[in-house]
Amino acid sequence: MASSSDVEIVDNDSLIDPSEYLADVSTQLVSGVLGLMGFTTALLVGLLAGNPAIAILGRALLAMLLCALVGRLLGSVGEVCVREYVTKYKSDRPQPNKPKELVELDLKQEAHESVMNSMKKAA
Predict the structure, then answer these.
(1) pTM for this prediction
(2) Which residues have C-beta within 8 Å of that of residue 102, sequence separation ≥ 6?
(3) For labelling alongside 109, which of 33, 46, 88, 96 has CA 20 to 30 A away?
(4) Hey, what's the torsion of the CAs at 71, 76, 77, 83, to 10 degrees?
């Protein structure tokens, strides 16, 4: 059984605001996925139509560029939505205060640990 000294306590103030990191990936991800889907679709349609290779690749690259730009726009809109939602969610649900009994228990545990440490040093 692990002792409580094995558990690392993370200070809440040191954590990054979730509204900063939850939405950062979406713009790049949506842009990349839509760009690749546009490229693949244009490539397959060009092959099925029997167009020359240079025309297929040119149109596929153009479709990739346009779809990536649309994806960037959609990803930015999604990012703003996620940031607003997370900020509103956190403001509507503040972190509760610890009950009085738990605070007293923490103080007693700290006092106990300090006595134990002083006894270990004396031994």
Answers:
(1) 0.58
(2) none
(3) 96
(4) 140
Query: How many structural domains compose the chain?
Result: 1
Provide the domain limits for residue 92.
17-96
Mean pLDDT of 98-118: 88
The identity of residue 123, as a single letter, is: A
* Contact assessment for residue 101 and residue 79, using Cβ atoms and an 8 Å cutoff: no
* Amino acid at the residue 61: L
Task: Determine the residue type at 90.
Answer: K
Please check whether residue 60 lies inside any domain of the structure.
yes
Q: Residue 25's closest CA among 106, 83, 69?
A: 83
Give pLDDT tens digits for 72-86.
999 889 888 888 888
Give the DSSP letter string of 31-44.
Answer: HHHHHHHHHHHHHH
